[in-house]
Amino acid sequence: MEQSSSAFVTMNPDDVPRVEAVKPGKRQAFGKWVRTARGSVQLAVRGCVGIGQGILDVLLLSNEVDLPHVPFVLVAHFCSTLSFFHQWRSGDPKMFLVRAGASLLRVGVQFHTAVCGRTWPADGCDLDGWSDIRLPLRIAACAAGSQLIGNALWLILHYLYPASGVTATTGCRFLWWRGVWRIILCVINLFRGSYKIDVYLTSTTVYRGPVEISVNFLRGGMLTPVAVWSLLRQYQTTGTGVVVAQDAHGISLPPGEL
């Protein structure tokens, strides 16, 4: 009987197929990056609104609109935007104070505009604006300055009392107050845009051009309403029914309240 021989095939180790770990796609990596943020995603939403506000400031500067004041507004929007994104990622409550400071900077801008008009501080005040077609715009600047004082106050109170009004279904009460209070800015900007149309069409001594009119309508009709919605949405979604963490003061709060 013949003995059958078995054939053995040897393979080169280099020829063996290797299974590599599947790397997450860009979408999955971005989703993980968003989920690891310690603050509410609404902070990022308002940060994007701040970017939009800054773009409008640059547009005004490029058209030489109110050069004595717009640069300071741009700095305030830049600081606020950075604080939004930093607080979203880190949960640092001190960013409330940064935004309060930015609001107070804009308070000075608004009241200087109201009292002196579009003049450099070294050039004195243009008081004629209180007795001509610019009077309603001066009053609107006073209203905007008062609104910003209130905004700074709510931010400081939110920092000092982060657990105020927190329930199982709602977040800090100052989120709600800030959202409702900001509606005033919508009204002010829409009024400014509407009134400037009349100035543009009828006045021969005061110029308010299409660019700044458009900026007023974009602020009052789009960017500020988004910020209002974001604040109220954060208030509705950051109650104690979600995952609880601790803020810098050692108080148990949802991550969105940090």
Task: Describe what is shown at a glance.
The protein has 258 residues and is an all-alpha fold. 62% of the residues lie in helices and 2% in strands.
How is the main sheet built? 2 strands, antiparallel
- Helix and strand string, N-terminal first? HHHHHHHEE
Low-pLDDT segments, ≥5 res:
248-252
**Number of DSSP strand runs:** 2
**Adjacency order of strands in the biggest sheet:** 1-2
Separation of termini? 86 Å
Overall structural class, as computed from helix and strand content, comes to: mainly alpha
Shape: globular
Continuous helix count? 7
Strand content: under 5%
Please bin the fraction of helical residues: 55-70%
Mean pLDDT: 88
**Rounded radius of gyration (Å):** 27 Å
What does this protein look like?
The chain has 258 residues and is an all-alpha fold. The chain is 62% helix and 2% strand. It has helices at 26-35, 41-62, 70-90, 95-116, 135-160, 173-202, 210-237; strands spanning 245-246, 252-253. Strands 1-2 form a two-stranded antiparallel sheet. Strand 1 and strand 2 form a beta hairpin. Helix 2 runs antiparallel to helix 7 (210-237).
Features:
258 residues; globular; mainly alpha
Fold blueprint:
Layout (H helix, E strand, L loop, with lengths): L25 H10 L5 H22 L7 H21 L4 H22 L18 H26 L12 H30 L7 H28 L7 E2 L5 E2 L5
Antiparallel strand pairs: 1-2
Helix pairs in contact: 2-3, 2-7, 3-4, 4-5, 5-6, 6-7
